[in-house]
Specification:
By secondary structure, the chain is an alpha/beta fold. The chain has 14 helices and 13 strands. Bound molecules: pyridoxal-5'-phosphate (PLP).
């Protein structure tokens, strides 16, 4: 089976892009930081700006070391490949990004299986993890890794509380498993929970942090963890073609994002809360209360699928994403100012 490239329709301009926080554009100031970056050959270990980013990210996350890669997906998959061996089993939420949105990479690259755990809002309890533990026997796949998402994407941008993470991690560690956090939006969680990043990720052995979501960089993510683990992960980065050359230009954008774009995530969360309140007033729309910058909603009461709703909004200059037959998602970010929310709501009312 082959797939058409997903080429956007450029004929109608997008005025209010609620499709994803991945669609932010680098600002002039961020581009200036990129222009000024000191660079070298990243693959050869001689790009000082990449090293600066890795050192900053490791410190911020409270881990020994960090490694820069082009995408969050690559960080997750390098983590899976480094933690696991073929035939191993990973425990993760049944809606996890590594399970449903990374092209089957855990199977294709690492030869591992994922056991999907149930639970509301993309999370599961320590008891659910306990029930999924298999007896150690030659019949069972070795269970090597527990994976958690912070914030949960399909779970509605919900945040694990620090105690909840400690509880599930404790069960995993008791049974000799490591814990990896898919922290594509972990910075949103830290802002929403008003807790230092290092505490939010402390229960996890390794963590991925993405710079291309709410932080607004054009490219890049880091994988952080123990020094020895990151040392082993380097071979997988090399194998997958993730070693770069003058990566410092992109690392400079990520450093800029760490310096300037963290506290402002609170605005995105406030905008999401306003959007949710307004959407809840629209007859036929049922909104899931947001915790961060993702607003999920159900369109069935309006007699429309989420795709129909999106198709009506598109010619009016608004984009949203579709996550199920009747489930849609609107996402606030750096390029959506507070005054755009009222405008988006007005267009949604008209569309229905
Ligand atoms: C976006 C996302 C990823 C993947 O990150 P990319 O940088 O797009 O590869 C992984 N996990 C979650 C939860 C995400 O939202």
């Amino acid at each position: 089976m082959s797939y058409e490239p997903k080429r956007a329709d450029f004929s109608v301009p997008v005025r209010i892009n609620l499709y994803s926080d991945t669609q932010t554009r680098p600002t002039r100031a961020m581009k200036e930081a990129m222009l000024a970056a000191e660079v070298g050959d990243e693959q050869g270990g001689s790009d000082p700006t990449v090293w600066e980013l890795c050192d900053r990210a490791a410190a911020l996350l409270g881990k020994e070391a960090a490694m820069f890669m082009p995408s969050g997906t690559m960080c997750n998959q390098v983590a899976v490949a480094t933690h696991c061996r073929p035939g191993d089993e990973i425990l993760a939420h049944e809606d996890a990004h590594i399970q449903g949105s990374e092209g089957g990479a855990p199977g294709a690259i690492s030869g591992v299986m994922i056991r999907g755990l149930p639970g509301p809002r993309g999370m599961f309890s320590a008891q659910t993890v306990r029930e999924a533990i298999r007896p150690v026997s030659r019949y069972s796949p070795p269970q090597r890794l527990l994976e958690v998402e912070q914030t949960t994407n399909k779970g509605g941008g919900a945040c694990w509380r620090i105690g909840e993470l400690q509880a599930v991690a404790e069960v995993a560690h008791e049974h000799g498993m490591s814990v990896h956090m898919d922290g594509a939006r972990v910075v949103n969680a830290a802002v929403a929970l008003d807790a230092p990043l290092s505490e939010v990720v402390s229960a996890c052995d390794t963590v991925m942090l993405d710079f291309t979501k709410g932080l607004g960089a054009p490219l890049g993510a880091v994988l952080a963890g123990p020094k020895d683990f990151i040392g082993q992960a380097w071979r997988w980065k090399q194998r997958l073609g993730g070693s770069m050359r003058q990566g410092g230009m992109n690392a400079a954008a990520c450093i800029y994002a760490l310096q300037h774009n963290i506290p402002r995530l609170a605005e995105d969360h406030a905008n999401a809360a306003n959007l949710a309140r307004g959407m809840a007033q629209i007859p036929g729309i049922i909104v899931e209360a947001p915790e961060t910058n993702l607003v999920f909603f159900d369109t069935s009461g309006a007699g429309l699928t989420a795709a129909d709703f999106a198709a009506r909004l598109r010619p009016m200059g608004v984009t949203i994403s579709v996550s199920g037959t009747y489930r849609g998602r609107a996402c606030t970010h750096l390029d959506i100012s507070a005054d755009r929310i009222g405008e988006a709501l007005e267009i949604m009312r008209q569309a229905l």
